[in-house]
Design a protein that fits this description.
Blueprint: H1 2-15, H2 45-60, H3 71-83, H4 89-97, H5 107-114, E1 117-122, E2 137-140, E3 148-149, E4 164-167, E5 191-193, E6 198-202, H6 226-244, H7 250-254, H8 264-279, E7 287-288, H9 292-299, E8 303-305
Parallel strand pairs: 1-7
Antiparallel strand pairs: 1-6, 2-3, 2-4, 5-8
Helix pairs in contact: 2-3, 2-6, 4-8, 6-8
Keywords: Signal
Signal peptide: 1-16
């Protein structure tokens, strides 16, 4: 009974203690925008820098690099993604749908799925050479004769007048979009000298590849950019927190142009870039593969070193 009385008196003293009003010194311009429990202080210059750094600039570091892409071209893409974040959407989806992750034991197939292999193809400037066997071409005879479509294992040689040989795009160089993807500014591994009438095209990911077993194990340099993946994760988390903290009357005042909502597309794109970085490795350059057209280019003075 004695202890119960002491506890009761203690609780009474604590509960009966009067509340105190405390005055806090806040910077000029502090307001709650008419929302009880909300306290908005004026932003400092460091707050503005952190907001832009973690919501916008960090997104630029998550943009996926294509195989063999030059630094200048990648910098232009990064600037475009800063101004319009959806610009990098195709890169992220392309990396996710490449399927390179499932071939982590096969370097050659993984590189093909990633779009890191290139092959020699003919251009519209290609012309036949007298005395040579022409393959992968369409022979158009004179109007009174029938044209012939030559397959890859056929050859045609004639000296008749009125014969026109036209090249065509064989199905094994066509991408999933239905047309070849030619190499323009990408970096190609090794050294090469392309004769006139030839260029490089990206090897489709679903093409048939034959590895030279006698050459030993094939290692193609590639790496998963862990730093980029971590930055994408951090940027997604920070942008999501910014969206969650978007409260008060900023949406009522500015609508969809509210600064708290501007980070939404960057958060979505960073999430896609995060998944894409984990699905497809980075390749510093493209790798040349041997083909019959490359042998034909060699016979015309071409040189290729560093093929796989």
């Amino acid at each position: 009974m004695k202890y119960f009385l002491h506890i009761s008196l203690l609780l009474y003293c604590v509960s009966a203690r009067p509340l105190q009003n405390i005055t806090l010194a806040l910077p000029e311009g502090t307001t709650n925008h008419g929302t009880p429990g909300l306290l908005c202080t004026p932003a400092k210059w460091t707050d503005v820098i952190v907001f832009f750094l973690f919501n916008y600039v960090a997104h630029a570091a998550t943009v996926i690099t294509r195989p063999g892409e030059r630094s200048v071209d990648f910098a232009a893409t990064v600037i475009g993604c800063l101004l319009h974040p959806a610009m990098g959407l195709y890169r992220g989806i392309e990396a996710i749908l490449s399927g390179a992750f499932w071939y982590w034991k096969d370097d050659l197939r993984k590189a093909a799925k990633s779009g890191a292999l290139c092959m020699v193809v003919r251009t519209n400037k290609w012309r036949p050479v007298d005395g040579s066997e022409v393959k992968n071409a369409v022979v158009q005879m004179a109007p009174d004769e029938t044209s012939a479509d030559l397959s890859s294992d056929a050859a045609f040689h004639t000296t008749a007048d009125g014969v026109h040989i036209a090249t065509y795009e064989p199905p094994w160089i066509l991408s999933q979009l239905g047309h070849p993807i030619y190499v323009h500014r990408q970096t190609v591994h090794g050294t090469y000298d392309l004769p006139e009438g030839y260029t490089f095209a990206i090897v489709p990911g679903d093409c048939m590849l034959k590895n030279d077993v006698s050459a030993g194990k094939l290692d193609i340099a590639a790496n998963y950019n862990t730093v980029k993946a971590l930055l994408a994760l951090a940027q997604t988390a920070y942008a999501s927190m910014t969206l969650y903290r978007s409260q008060g009357d900023q949406i009522e005042q500015f609508g969809y142009a509210a600064f708290g909502l501007t980070v939404a597309p960057f958060a979505v794109m960073s999430t896609i870039n995060l998944i894409g970085s984990l699905c497809r490795p980075d390749y510093a350059s493209l790798y040349m593969v041997e083909s019959s057209i490359m042998d034909e280019a060699r016979s015309r003075g071409g040189s290729f070193k560093g093929t796989v």
